[in-house]
Design a protein that fits this description.
The protein has 384 residues and is α/β, with parallel strands linked by helices. Helix content is 36%, strand content 26%. It has an eight-stranded mixed sheet. A five-stranded parallel sheet has the order 7-3-2-11-17.
């Protein structure tokens, strides 16, 4: 079968599907190629920040009621640990929502199809003639296109085919543990000191806890051993009963696309878009998917240049966060961090609501964030 579309998207995750959905809404012909079949499992801690939820509602047009089945849990409490030491316990004004990617990704894919979108599942790229803008697929189909959007993950095969180098990588491992096996309560837990240059987590996830760890990829680290030690530290007598799986993710470097084709865009994990402090990728997947769609809609002849402009705020966040991350995980800073943060429940909550749930401050302006926190604290005292 021969397809002829304006835009072909490689990868049916949140980045690719958000781009395709917005193109579909605006009458731009498109096609999504996905190597797996939905529902498919995907490693992801599953925390959905408020800024991510807002993109789902305000940009993709889903109501809170439509999205409700996508979320399996929520929590208004954040606990921050250094090893086994509880540093802070913060109550948040807006709860974190928790999802599993097989729920979220399947929902987005099916909603795209309901809007008339064409999704080829269980299909991969066999070859390409980029001079003629033609792709050949594993099912024997060919696709003629004007724009190519690459959204097939951190280890993107399409990106390699195009000759782009790999981004800096992180690595994560996770498993799910039934809630009755862990007396962890309902809090979202973040734990430092479990893995070098990273953190571990325990997130409520329906009937389970999602337990994992991740950070900058480093050769020589025995991730399986560290994961089993972490599970044991939580009170599990036989960690081997909960085998963890691992996955690579981008960690601190977006791919420079300047000088390449104006009709090829790298988005989401394939473009290296992920927060280098929190590791959050869902927000960047949706944000870059939207940016790609907007670039194709409003500057079709110069889509890549327009995409670079539209994603400048996200690139700035990642660039500044990468500098901060290199400092954060040094031994001296970790020691100072434990000392300064211990017992600062209100400040950690303020930080979380303004630089995790939302990007109200850039990473390069943490001093202003702290000053604003102190001002707000002073005003609260004055009004009492």
């Amino acid at each position: 079968m021969k397809h002829s579309v304006d835009t072909v998207i490689i990868g049916g995750g949140p980045a690719g599907i958000s781009c395709a959905t917005l193109l579909q809404k605006n009458g731009v012909s498109n096609l999504v190629i996905e190597k797996k079949t939905f529902p498919r499992k995907k490693l992801c801690a599953g925390l959905v920040t408020q800024k991510t939820f807002r993109l789902l509602v305000e940009e993709l047009g889903f109501s809170a009621e439509e999205l409700a089945p996508v979320f399996c849990d929520e929590s208004s409490t954040l606990e921050l640990y250094s090893g086994d030491l509880l540093l802070t316990r913060s109550e948040l004004s807006t709860p974190f929502r928790l999802t599993r990617r097989e729920l979220l990704d399947t929902f987005l894919a099916r909603q795209y199809q309901l809007r008339g979108g064409v999704l080829l599942e269980n299909t991969t790229l066999n070859g390409s003639d980029l001079s003629a803008n033609i792709l050949t697929l594993s099912n024997g189909d060919t696709v003629e296109f004007r724009h190519l959007v690459v959204a097939d993950g951190a280890l993107s095969e399409t990106r390699s085919l195009l000759g782009y180098p790999f981004p800096t990588l992180g690595f994560c491992m996770e498993t799910h543990v039934p809630k009755e096996k862990l007396p962890q309560g309902t809090a979202v837990q973040v734990r430092f000191g479990v893995i070098p240059k990273g953190y571990a987590w325990v997130f409520p996830s329906g009937n389970d806890f999602c337990v994992g760890m991740g950070g900058v990829w480093q050769k020589g680290i025995d991730h399986k051993r560290l994961m089993n030690e972490f599970l044991a530290s939580l009170g599990l007598e036989n960690p081997e009963e909960y085998p963890a799986k691992g996955a690579f993710l981008p960690y601190g470097e977006t791919k420079k696309q300047s000088g390449g084709s104006e009709h090829i865009l790298l988005i989401g994990d394939a473009g290296g878009f992920a927060d280098p402090i929190s590791g959050e990728g869902l927000y960047f997947a949706l944000a870059t998917g939207k940016a790609a769609a907007d670039a194709i809609l409003h500057a079709p002849e110069h889509a890549r240049t327009e995409f670079d402009k539209l994603t400048a705020p996200e690139r700035k966040i990642i660039r500044q966060g990468t500098r901060l991350q290199k400092l954060l995980y040094s031994a001296a800073v970790q020691k100072l961090f434990r000392k300064k943060v211990l017992g600062k429940n209100a400040f950690v909550g303020f930080y979380c609501e303004n630089l995790v749930s939302e990007y109200n401050y850039p990473y390069g302006d943490l001093l202003r964030l702290y000053r604003d926190y102190k001002k707000g604290k002073k005003k609260t005292k004055e009004t009492k």
